[in-house]
Amino acid sequence: MRVTVLAAAAAPPAAEPSCYSSVRNEWWCWQYVVDRREEITEAGVQHVGITLAAIVLAVALAFPLALLARRTRRLESTVLAVSTGLYTIPSLALFPLFLPFTGLSAATVVLALALYALTVLVRSLLDGLRAVPEEVRESAIGQGVGPTRLLLRVELPLALPVFLGGLRVAAVSTVALTTVGALVSYGGLGNLIQHGVARNFRAELLTASVLCVLLALVLDAVIVLLQRLLTPWTRGSTV
Amino acid sequence: MNVLADTWDHLLDPTSWRGGGGMLALLVEQLLLTVTALAAATVVGLPIALALGHRGRGGFLAINVSNIGRAVPTFALLAVLVAADWPGTAQLGPYGRAGLATLIALTLFGLPPIITAAYVAVREVPREVTEAARGMGMTGWQVFRRAELPLALPLVVSGLRLALVQVWATATIAALVAGPGLGRVITDGFAANDYGKGIAGAVVVAVVALCLETGSALVQRAVDPQRRARSRTVGEDVPPTVTEAPGTTGRRATGDTAAPDTRGSAAGHRR
Questions:
Q1: Half-sphere exposure of B148 toward its Cβ, with a 13 Å CA cutoff?
Q2: Residue B196 included in any domain
Q3: Which of A17, A20, A111, B45 shows the greatest Cβ crowding within 10 Å of its Cβ?
Q4: B258 → closest Cβ in A119, A131, A190
Q5: Higher pLDDT, A13 or A24
Q6: Interatomic CA distance for residues B22 and A121, integer angstroms
Q7: Where in the sequence is the domain holding B178, given as residue range(s)?
Q8: Does residue B267 sit at the A interface (CB-CB below 8 Å)?
């Protein structure tokens, strides 16, 4: 009898260990998310920042490169060969190769990820431009449309659906690849995953992993929305 | 540029290659992991994808499995497998620490390119060819074996190539969760502020990746039945479908390395 009373009295101060304490170490723990929300937000913001910077840089470089590449067949095959080679190099190996030039900074991650995205984007842009029907091009020229207007008003809009398809691929894989930036401590949510693995902290690594996938899905949905707004004529025919 | 000199020294120093944790042993370990996982993914994924392609069913799944695979970070899946009670970090024979967890992750990430490419490959076989084959009285199996499979083969093989490159890349990332493989040289180097060592590891990983890609491209060329058929029938009258197919599959094969699903949707348009 006395024992139970003692136990009851002792319980409140030695409160039950939280679900993310190393004793329980549960995979999903809302308490963790509440307690560490600042840390999680910071990692998420870094993740989004690195991803967006890489994609914007890649898009900005992809247009001139694709337009240049399509001028001569030889340049095109060179660009495609180099980009295939680049795409072959594993991300964990590409980051160190940038290190001598950019050091341990976010720039290392952004540049490497932009290169990966660039290879996808240039390819899809070239595919899209190639898919423009020759009759459309000829009838535009026949109507007296100049080369610049032909590109901006006819060819690029028609290449847009294929290009945006490539953008979806690039964006989703960039979100996933950003985690590997943890190697140089600029991996966004990847930093949390790495810390979680090192300390066997399940709630931390699972929360960060789930957020990563959600981020990829949200970004994908945004691009799909963009696709609907920019290319209303494809509505209904594509998925 | 001191780091580059360190890198060079590390690459030339024979002691960095020899021994248990040497780059040679880790290279063999990672190649072993890659080959095993690719074989497992092929055995599991290829029959399913070919069957789905032949029946023309499950296309949504076969195309989207690649999209899902792309959204899940390799690192995250490896981390979850390693932190779990099973498979955890247990040593697995020649596959090193966390060998089983790494093999499972590698196989899972090898599956999507194989499944998507094989499915699309069978679906892309011109309808006239399969209908003609059926009209000649071939059974479903014969249509698959004698008409669809030979025409689909180049694209199937390029899916395997893509999987090979992907599995190799994933195997490198295993080091981030203290798993096996050459990536360890990179992570160890970075953890110890020995950037020369880390970059040296990266150079080796990248060079092997390029060798695997080029090597598999050469193998693909050598075994391409349509290429052999063409060289046999030089100057002869080749049926139009046969001359046409290699061109289309060849172009798509180059396109799929970067963007498998844009190609998938493009395929949808053409049909």
A1: 27
A2: no
A3: B45
A4: A119
A5: A24
A6: 38
A7: 35-182+225-265
A8: no
From chain A, the residues in CB contact with B258 under 8 A are 83-84, 87, 119-120, 123-124, 166, 169
Contact check, Cβ <8 Å, B76/A212: yes
> Over 90: is that where the pLDDT of A50 sits?
yes
A148 sits in which H/E element: helix A147-149
CB A112 within 8 A of CB A93: no
Chains A–B, number of C-beta pairs less than 8 Å apart:
179
CB contact under 8 A, B176 and A162: no
Residue B51 inside a domain? The answer is yes
Residue B1: pLDDT over 90: no
State how far the Cα of B212 lies from the Cα of B182, in Å rounded to an integer.
Answer: 15
Q: Which residue of A has its CA nearest to B194?
A: A96
Q: Are B63 and B261 in contact (CB under 8 A)?
A: yes
Q: Each residue of B86-142: pLDDT tens digit? A: 888 888 888 888 899 999 999 999 999 999 999 999 999 999 999 999 999 999 999
Per cent of chain B over pLDDT 70 is: 83
B217 touches chain A (CB under 8 A): no
Asked if pLDDT for residue A174 goes beyond 70, the answer is yes
